[in-house]
Amino acid sequence: MHLHALLQLVLSLPLTANAEPVPLFARQKQPPHDLAVTPRSDLIVPRARPDAPSGGYAPSVVECPKDRPRIRLANALSQAESEWLAKRRKNTVDPMIQFLKRAEIPDFDAEAYIKSVSSGDDLSNLPNIAIAVSGGGYRALMNGAGFISAADSRTPGSTDKGGIGGLLQSTTYLSGLSGGGWLVSSIYANNFSTISTLQQGRKDSSIWRFDDSIFNGPDLPGVFDTARYWADVAEQVRSKRKAGFETSITDYWGRALSYQLIDAPDGGPAYTFSSISEDDHFSAGQAPFPILVADNRPPGMKAVTLSATVFEFNPFEMGSWDPTTYGFAPTRYLASNFSGGVVPSSGRCVRGFDSISYVFGTSSSLFNAFLLQNITSVEGVPDWLIEQATNLLEDVDEKENDVAKYEPNPFLGWLNASNPVAHVTDLDLVDGGEDLQNIPLQPLIQPLRAVDVIFAVDSSADTTFSWPNGTALRATYDRSLTPIANGTLFPPVPDDVTFLARGLNNRPTFFGCSSSNFTVPAGGRVPPLVVYLPNAPYTTYSNVTTFTPSYPLSQRNDIILNGYNAATQGNGTLDENWVSCVACAVLSRSLDRMGTAVPARCTECFEKYCWDGKTAAQAGDVSIQGVVSGAGGEEYQPTLKIQDVEGEESGAASMIVGRSGMIWVCVVVAFVGLML
Ligand SMILES: *[C@@H]1O[C@H](CO)[C@@H](O)[C@H](O)[C@H]1NC(C)=O
Ligand SMILES: *[C@@H]1O[C@H](CO)[C@@H](O)[C@H](O)[C@H]1NC(C)=O
Ligand SMILES: *[C@@H]1O[C@H](CO)[C@@H](O)[C@H](O)[C@H]1NC(C)=O
Ligand SMILES: *[C@@H]1O[C@H](CO)[C@@H](O)[C@H](O)[C@H]1NC(C)=O
Ligand SMILES: *[C@@H]1O[C@H](CO)[C@@H](O)[C@H](O)[C@H]1NC(C)=O
Ligand SMILES: *[C@@H]1O[C@H](CO)[C@@H](O)[C@H](O)[C@H]1NC(C)=O
Ligand SMILES: *[C@@H]1O[C@H](CO)[C@@H](O)[C@H](O)[C@H]1NC(C)=O
Ligand SMILES: *[C@@H]1O[C@H](CO)[C@@H](O)[C@H](O)[C@H]1NC(C)=O
Ligand SMILES: *[C@@H]1O[C@H](CO)[C@@H](O)[C@H](O)[C@H]1NC(C)=O
Fold first, then answer.
1. Does some domain include residue 409?
2. Looking at residue 226, what is its pLDDT?
3. What mean pLDDT, rounded, does the chain reach?
4. CA nearest 426: which of 438, 412, 409, 439?
5. Which of 236, 275, 404, 642 is the most exposed place for a label (fewest CB within 10 A)?
6. Which residue's alpha carbon is at the smallest distance from atom 2 of ligand 6?
7. DSSP secondary structure string, 58-73?
8. Contact 468, 460 (CB under 8 A)
9. Is 462's C-beta closer than 6 angstroms to any atom of ligand 6?
10. What element of type H or E holds 389?
11. Residue 634's domain spans which residues?
12. Residues 88, 283 contacting (CB under 8 angstroms)
C-alpha cells in the first residue's frame, strides 16, 4: 500500500487515543447491510432514492398525473433546468471566488471581478463551467475520479497550494459516458459522496470494491457467494420482465455493476435516475447537474456513425437536441405509452423504468458482450445462468449484444418527418462512445446551455497501449461541421497524427483559446474553451486495458491518484503556475464578454497550453513524441512524468504493510512517520 492511501486512512480515523482502529476492509462475520452498527455509516448515504413504486427493479404502471407526461421540443432548456440553474449559478459564486483567489493570478482581483459579474439576477457573464468524463471502463472511472477528487474542495489537501479544489463546487454541469457515466452515477447515487469516501469504503459494503470482479460478485460476510449474487441479479431482471417489459443483457450488466456503484442492499434495485431531482441538496443547486449520454442505433443499421442521434439522460429529462429527434421526455415517466408526444387516454403511465443502473448500463452497453463472454468462464456461476448466457450469445446477433431497449419508444409518432425513430415501437440505444465521441460533449456544447469552459477528461484507449490519441475530441469537432450539429459549435481540433506528433495527448491542451478566431452567427456565442486532459502516466501507468475485470485496491488508488496528479500537474510540480492557468481558462470567455483586459499571467498560460493551430506537417513535427521504436514500428509509449514523489513508498511503512494485513499497524507507523 502506498503512503498516500495510508494518509487518507489516517486522516479518516478518529484522533482520540482510545478510539478503536476501524478495520476498513476487513471481512467480519456480521449481518450484511446492517447500517446501524457500522462505524462509518454516516459517510455514504444514498442521494438518489429507491423511488421505483415497485420497491424493486421492476417498473410499475401508475395512474397518470393530472398534468399528463409529454414530449417537448428541444428548442429551449426545460423549465425545471432553468429554475435549477438560477439556484446553482448563484451557489457557484462563492466557491469560484475562493478558487480564483487561491489561484493567485498576479495583478488580478478575482473577488472584485466575480462580484462585478454576479451582482443582480443576470449571471450570464459569470463563468459557466462544465466537466466531461470520458468512457473507457474502469480506467475511465478511476482516472475521472482522480480529476473529480482534485477539483472537489472537500478532498483533504485539494485546496492547499497547487490544488484545484473548489473547481467542482464552481461547476454547473457534470457529464459522463460509459465508464465515466459509472463514476457520475456512483457519486449521485451515494449522496454526492467525495471520491475519498467512496475509496475508503464501508464495512460490509461492496462499494468501489473493484478487487472483486462483477463476475464473481461481492465478497461479503456469510450470505454472499457467486451463485447467490447471480440469482439475485437474475431475480431483479426477471421482475422487470414479469411486469411486462422487454429485458436484455443491458439489464443484467447494469444490475451487476450496481453492487459496486450503489451503496445500498443488493445494489439498490429501486434507485432511479430521476430521483436525483428530488434530493434536497441537488434541488437546492448544491451540486452540478449530472448528465449521461447514449447513442441511437437506427433501425436496421449495424454501425453507429457520427450522424447517429445522441441522447442524454438528466434528472429531469431524456432525449436529444439533435435536429432529428429534437425532443425530450420526462425521465421519470420513461416507458409510458407516448404517441405523437402525448400519452393518450388509452395509454398507460409507467414509473420506475429509469433505474439508475439501466441508465448507466445503457451508456456503457459496449461492455455487454464482455459480460456475456466472460460469465461462462467464472467459477461459481450457476449452470442455468451459463446456459442462458450461451443461449443469448447464440440468439442475439453479435452486433446486437450492445443494445438497450427503450420500449415503448417515447418518441413514437414524434416529428415523423425528421425523426429516424418516429416509426419504431422500440428505441434502441447503445454505448455513448460508439460514434467515436467518447467524451460526453454534446450536452455541453448546446448553445442554450451557454457553457464557457469544458474540462474534458479523456481516458480513451486509442493507441496500442491504451492511451488516448485525440480521436474522441476530433470526432466532436468533425460532427460540429455537419448538418446534425444544429447550431452547436466546437473549437477546431487537429487529427490524431497531430496529437501524437505534437504531444497534445500527453499534456493538458487548451482548444479554442482565441474567441476572435470564430465567426459567430448573429446573437450567437462563441464555442466553449476546451481544456483537454488526456490520461497520461504521471505517477503510475494508468493505461490498464479496458476489459480488465478487477483491480487490487492499491492499483485502484494509484490510478485515482494519477488522475489527481494530472489534474494538478503534480500539485504544481510540473508547472508551478498550473492552478492559475486553470483559473485563466475558467475566466477566459467571461473576460472577453466583459471586454476586460486579459491578465499577463493568462497570456503566458495561453501561450503555453493553447493549441497553436498548427498540424504536425505545418509544425514540422513528423514523428510520434515519446515513442519507443519496437519491432512493430513506432508506438506511443510515454514514461512517468513524476518520478520520485516525496514520502511515497517510505520504506519502513510499506514493508510492514506488505507483510501484515492488520491496518492498525500501518496507522501507527504512518502516525510515527508523520511526526518525524
Ligand atoms: C448528504 O450529505 C449532506 C452533506 O454533504 C448532508 O447535509 C445530508 O444530510 C446528507 N443526506 C443524507 C440523506 O444523509
Ligand atoms: C435545430 O433543429 C430544429 C429542428 O430541425 C430546427 O427547428 C432549429 O431551427 C435548428 N436550430 C438551428 C440553430 O439550426
Ligand atoms: C403501451 O405499451 C405497451 C408496451 O409496449 C404495449 O404492449 C401496449 O399495447 C401499449 N398500449 C397502448 C394503448 O398504446
Ligand atoms: C473475458 O473474455 C475475453 C474475450 O473473450 C478474454 O480475452 C478474457 O480472458 C476473459 N476474461 C475473463 C476474466 O474470463
Ligand atoms: C406519425 O406517424 C404515425 C405512424 O407511425 C401516425 O400514426 C401519426 O398520425 C403520424 N403523425 C403525424 C402528425 O403525421
Ligand atoms: C488513434 O486512435 C484510433 C482509435 O480510436 C485509431 O483508429 C487510430 O489509428 C489512431 N491513430 C494513430 C495515428 O495511431
Ligand atoms: C498532491 O497532493 C495530493 C493531496 O495532498 C497528494 O495525495 C499527492 O500525492 C500529491 N502529488 C504529488 C505529485 O506530490
Ligand atoms: C482558427 O480557425 C481556423 C478556421 O476554422 C482553423 O483552421 C484554425 O485551426 C483555428 N486556429 C486555432 C488556433 O484554433
Ligand atoms: C502502458 O504503457 C506503457 C508505455 O507507456 C507500456 O509499456 C505498457 O505496456 C502499457 N501497459 C498496458 C497494460 O498496456
1. no
2. 87
3. 86
4. 409
5. 642
6. 462
7. S-EEEPPPSS--B-EE
8. yes
9. yes
10. helix 383-395
11. 3-330+351-404+419-675
12. no
Running DSSP on this structure, what letter comes out for residue 286? Answer: -
Q: What is the pLDDT of residue 225?
A: 84
The answer to whether 144 and 168 are in contact (CB under 8 A) is: no
Per-residue confidence (pLDDT) for residue 60, from 0 to 100: 97
Rg, C-alpha atoms of the chain: 24
Q: Which residues contact 55 (CB under 8 A, 6 or more apart)?
A: 270
Nearest residue (CA) to ligand 9, atom 7: 637
CATH of the domain at 665: 3.40.1090.10
Stronger pLDDT, 44 or 453, i.e. the higher one = 453
One-letter amino acid at 129 equals I
What is the torsion angle, in degrees rounded to the nearest 10, for the CA atoms of residue 137, residue 142, residue 144 and residue 149?
Answer: 160
Whether the CB of 340 sits within 6 Å of ligand 5: yes
How would residue 451 be classed by pLDDT, with cut points 50, 70 and 90? very high
CA atoms within 13 A on the CB side of 654: 11
Beta strands 627-630 and 529-534 are: unpaired
- The grid coordinates listed for 106 are 498576479
The pLDDT tens digits of the residues spanning 538-562 come to 999 999 998 889 999 999 999 999 9
Query: Counting ligands in written order, which one lies closest to the CA of residue 413?
Result: 5
Residue 220 has a pLDDT of 85
| Residue 121 CB coordination number (10 Å) | 9
Q: H or E element: which one contains 90?
A: helix 79-103
Taking residues 238-260, report their average pLDDT.
94
Contact present, 392 and 372 (Cβ < 8 Å): yes
Residue 446 domain flag? yes
Instruction: Give Cβ neighbours of residue 565 (< 8 Å, ≥ 6 apart).
Output: 146, 538, 539, 571, 642
C-alpha cell at 252: 443484467
Q: What angle do CA 12, 18, 24 make, to 5 degrees?
A: 35
Residue 20 has pLDDT above 60, yes or no: no
Once rounded to an integer, what is the mean pLDDT over residues 522-551?
93
How are beta strands 529-534 and 327-330 bridged, if at all? unpaired
Instruction: Give mean pLDDT, residues 497-510.
Output: 96
Structural domain count of the chain: 1
**Structure confidence at residue 627 (pLDDT):** 57
Which residues form the pocket of ligand 9, taking CB atoms under 6 Å from any ligand atom? 465-466, 537, 541, 543-545, 637-638
Reply yes or no on whether the pLDDT at 673 is more than 90.
no
Helices and strands of the chain, counted as H and E runs: 20, 16
Would the CB of 624 count as within 6 Å of ligand 6?
no
> Measured from the CB, is residue 399 less than 6 Å from ligand 5?
no
pLDDT at 64: 97
Task: Look up cell 503555453; give the residue.
Answer: 608
Q: Is residue 8 part of a domain?
A: yes
